[in-house]
Amino acid sequence: MAKKALVTGITGQDGSYLTELLLQKKYQVFGLVQRSATDPFDNIRHLLDDIEIIVGDLSDSGSLIRALQQSDPDEVYNLAAQSFVKSSWDIPEMTGDVTGLGVTRMLEAVRTVKPQARFYQASSSEMFGQVAQTPQRETTPFHPRSPYGVAKVYGHWITVNYRESYDMFACSGILFNHESPRRGYEFVTRKVASTAAYIKEGLASELTLGNLDSKRDWGFAGDYVEAMWLMLQQDAPDDYVIGTGENHSVQELCEVAFGHLGLDWTKYVKQDKRFMRPAEVEVLLSDPSKARKNLKWQTKVSFEKLIQMMVDAEMKRIVEMRAGEVPGLPRA
Ligand code: NDP
Ligand code: GDR
Predict the structure, then answer these.
(1) What does the pLDDT look like over 293-310, one tens digit per residue?
(2) Which residues have CB under 6 Å of ligand 2?
(3) pTM for the model
(4) Is the beta carbon of 59 within 6 A of some atom in ligand 1?
(5) Distance separating alpha carbons of residues 160 and 237, to the nearest angstrom
(6) Superfamily of domain 4-178+219-242
(7) How far is the CA of 156 from the centre of ligand 2 (A)?
(8) pLDDT classification of 330: cutoffs 50, 70, 90
(9) What is residue 331's predicted lDDT score, i.e. its pLDDT?
(10) Where are the domains of the chain?
(11) What mean pLDDT do residues 122-133 have?
(12) What was the pLDDT predicted at 245?
């Protein structure tokens, strides 16, 4: 019998790669999608014939219970969230409700309908925030620096609490930044890759960014969804840090992206305080040794290859846009 998985946040970057992986492994996949006035299916259009969409929302418990009843899953991947850190200062209450309390609603739905289902929570390196030690590992204390980070700390601990309280198979993956051509346009890697391509093609003249000094441990999203799946295949539930163990600054990101197109980034990049954050996470660096040892997980795509892949995808998109095959690019 095929295993069944329920994926929240299926229309997002990770949801799309995870669904591809699960379909490859012959799972029956159900995706929770929130109601939208516009088309949210860009990332998963190629998968729509092979999955079942369930309308629901992390702020609506009844819809989550019905999603559990309809899908009767063996595994639940809770990827849905208000995931853009910068916006979490503009909409802190909504971020707390969806990204934080939404995890409790999902766990309650699982406990009520299918307590034996295995549960994955999408936790984040943003929980480390103002880091207490470097590199960060599973035991590093949390000090979040944004309403998003605070909400994720709540989501992490409620997942641990349901594991300890009800003996549920609940895991928290503490994932460091992971990117791809399917990343939202407002995140810095996609913003840099798409604008560099626009500049190359004469469609833009400059790129406006915030803090160029912050450092992130950036990996490829396609590698990271494999770690999510592996966590739910273990004998016992646990929490894992997932990252590359290497970090780079936003400036280095610009150097690689513009350099790949034969451009000098210093001629085009400007700074604007509109893109600065009220409190910044300056440096993140993972220690993924537990995942390497227990899950036998390893990242496969280097930072340079990742950024080049993203820039190439943007150049291809411009060709398709000019041919009228895809609509114009939204701008961050
Ligand atoms: P995205 O922002 O691409 O996707 C978020 C998904 O959540 C979208 O499908 C979105 O739907 C959905 N969603 C938002 N609000 C609700 C709601 N109220 N009810 C139901 N669905 C909702 O995120 P990623 O794919 O990049 O990340 C996946 C998860 O992993 C997130 O929880 C994120 O916080 C976390 N994470 C991500 C990291 C990364 O580097 N990418 C690192 C660490 C953690 P819609 O398309 O309609 O907006
Ligand atoms: P982050 O990703 O906040 O780490 O959260 P983002 O790409 O938004 O920022 C990374 C770093 O780049 C700096 N930066 C800018 N960022 C954006 N978005 N736009 C800019 O113009 C800009 N200029 C500089 C930021 O200040 C920051 O230091 C991501 C999300 O996917 C979260 O959901 C996830 O939990 C974490 O990664 C791990």
Answers:
(1) 999 999 999 999 999 999
(2) 83, 85-86, 124-126, 176-177, 186-188, 191, 209-211, 214, 216, 250, 275, 277, 280-281
(3) 0.98
(4) yes
(5) 10
(6) NAD(P)-binding Rossmann-like Domain (3.40.50.720)
(7) 20
(8) low
(9) 53
(10) 4-178+219-242, 185-216+246-285+302-322
(11) 98
(12) 98
Residues 227-272: tens digit of each pLDDT: 999 999 999 999 999 999 999 999 999 999 999 999 999 999 999 9
Average pLDDT over residues 107-115: 98
Class of domain 185-216+246-285+302-322: alpha beta
User: Of 236, 133, 222, which is closest to residue 181 (Cα–Cα)?
Assistant: 222
Ligand nearest to the CA of 146: 2
**Nearest residue (CA) to ligand 1, atom 28:** 79
Q: How high is the pLDDT of residue 55?
A: 98
- The full length of the chain comes to 332
Average pLDDT over residues 64-71: 98
More confident residue, 290 or 1: 290
Closest atom, ligand 2, to C-alpha of 276:
26
Q: In what order do the strands lie in the sheet with 28-33?
A: 51-55, 28-33, 4-8, 75-78, 118-124, 170-175, 239-242
Cα(277) to centroid(ligand 2), Å: 10
